[in-house]
Design brief:
By secondary structure, the chain is of the alpha+beta class. 33% of the residues lie in helices and 20% in strands.
Length: 494
């Protein structure tokens, strides 16, 4: 096993995209096979060590940044299997934790298959996408990573290696799981005793549902319950054709009418992605795309899968919907081939790039949200963000996954006073979203940055439920302490 102890060699493991700056570690280990990863955990308690898991540094919540713990880096667990077609029209592929998402998607595509999850950052690790239940624009049709995980290989905190497939370990009628493990022995614990928000995207805290599968407890657990060593993932046939449109609207009223009709469309209007750009986002993008029309109320980006047989009929249905909602067809941007689709997707991904470039010239960091509400309340979420920021006089953008009522608000402070006010507003927005039945995080997770707000979502009793599960699997608290669960709850729980 490779290890690095030289401060200059491990500096890169003290950062991700969260802007946390104060991490430190005595060393980084790079296991090269599952047994080496499990061995580190097996000896952790006796050696007095704790470990933080490190993906590829693309996370936004500080999850991989250590604060005195050793680091287990997943980079050398990067083997990927072959695509295996199954009898039911799908296929499967196995990938170790350190496989890049883009490499898995490329291998699937070369074999004529399609892996639907599409986080913006394609260099994230597969293990990280499982640990964080990652999603993206195509989640409107296909759901988040959880929907595509068939089986997992996990190194548990006491050093056992657990192989679990869907359907093998279900919570019984009392909500209890039972495991017989070589090292940890007999483990029996109940699922968390709380409910899930009624949102179509959710990634905040341990999953819980009657009769749930044990696989789903580990998906989205942010590495606090074990190390994702390998995942068996479900693939679908590659769509015959895909087209995309960027549709401009002269008013927010027309834009939301379009979203409502597109979300509940028929066979011809059946999007796999519905994304929002508010007016301020378009103004920001105009520095790179001067052809963006002035005076619009915002834009919606949609993608739909089609075939040669039905493409024309679907395009006509979308054109009719645009006309019905007053969208000026002459301003819309349609992509009907691979090159056009790549250009529109580049446009969609350019906004966060431009925001980060703008921030690099400022003294303060952005304050951003990752919250979602029940689908029917998507406009209320938009108006909550818009009205609050207008009242404060902030520079801000609203964009993202309107199809799932999941919008990203980016507040761009110009000085420390604005930053402090933006952080105060964020707390108020959390309260507003939770009062609407929403979730604190829809895709980026909690990590270290948002753990204090998780208490507001679940209450102290809910966090204690998470601690109970954590201690059942990690009694010596050796893995990813500080992530997800506020550390103060470990000190008060026995």
């Amino acid at each position: 096993m490779i290890s690095k102890l030289d401060p200059s060699a491990i500096q890169g493991f003290l950062e991700d995209t969260s802007n946390l700056k104060s991490g430190w570690t005595p060393g980084v280990f790079f296991p090269e096979n599952p047994e080496e990863a499990a061995g580190l955990l097996r000896n952790a308690a006796s050696e007095g060590r704790r470990y933080t898991l490190a993906g590829n540094g693309t996370g936004t919540t500080g999850g991989r940044i250590p604060f005195g713990d050793y680091v287990i880096a997943m980079h050398r667990l990067n083997r990927i299997g072959e695509v295996e077609p199954l009898d039911n029209g799908i296929a499967r592929i196995r990938a170790e934790s350190g496989v890049l998402l883009q490499d898995l998607q490329s291998k699937a595509a070369a074999a004529g298959w399609f892996y639907p999850p599409d986080p913006t950052e394609k260099t994230c690790f597969i293990g990280s996408t499982v640990a964080n239940n990652s999603s993206g624009s195509r989640s409107f049709r296909y759901g988040a990573t959880r929907s595509h995980v068939r089986a997992l290989k996990i190194a548990l905190p006491q050093g056992d290696i657990l192989d679990i497939a869907r359907g093998e370990h279900l919570a019984d009628e009392t909500g209890r799981f039972s495991l017989d493990l070589p090292i940890a022995g007999d483990l029996s614990f109940r699922r968390p005793d709380y409910g899930m928000p009624a949102t179509s995207k959710h990634n905040a805290g341990y999953w819980s549902a009657p009769g749930m599968d044990l696989v789903d407890l580990f998906v989205g657990s942010e590495g606090t319950l074990g190390i994702i060593l390998e995942a068996e993932l479900e693939l679908r046939p590659t769509p015959e054709k895909v087209f995309a449109c960027l549709v401009y609207f002269m008013s927010e009223e027309a834009l939301f009418a379009f979203v409502e009709k597109a979300r509940s469309g028929d066979a011809e209007v059946s999007p796999r992605a519905i994304e929002l750009f508010d007016r301020r986002s378009l103004e920001f993008l105009r520095q790179g795309y001067p052809s963006i029309p002035h005076g619009t109320g915002g834009a919606i980006y949609v993608e739909q899968e089609t075939t040669d047989a039905d493409e024309e009929r679907c395009l006509e249905a979308w054109t009719a919907l645009m006309a019905e909602c007053g969208a000026p067809a002459e301003l819309s941007w349609a992509a009907l081939d691979a090159d056009g689709l790549a250009g529109l997707r580049e446009f969609r991904h350019e906004l966060p790039v431009l925001v980060n470039e703008w921030l690099s010239r400022q003294a303060e960091s952005k304050v951003s949200t990752d919250m979602a509400v029940p689908d029917a309340l998507s406009r209320q979420l938009y108006e909550l963000y818009r009205d609050a920021c207008e009242a404060e006089g902030f520079t801000y953008l609203i964009f993202g996954h309107i199809g799932n009522a999941h919008l990203h608000l980016n507040i761009l402070p110009r000085n420390r006073e604005e930053y402090d006010r933006a952080k105060s507003l964020y707390r108020k927005l959390v309260s507003g979203v939770l009062s609407m039945g929403g979730t604190l995080s829809a895709e980026h997770g909690i990590g270290k940055l948002k753990s204090e707000y998780l208490v507001q979502m679940y209450g102290e009793s809910g966090i204690r439920e998470m601690v109970r599960i954590k201690k059942a699997l990690d009694p010596y608290l050796v893995l990813n302490i500080g992530n997800l669960i506020p550390t103060s709850f470990y000190e008060t729980e026995t």
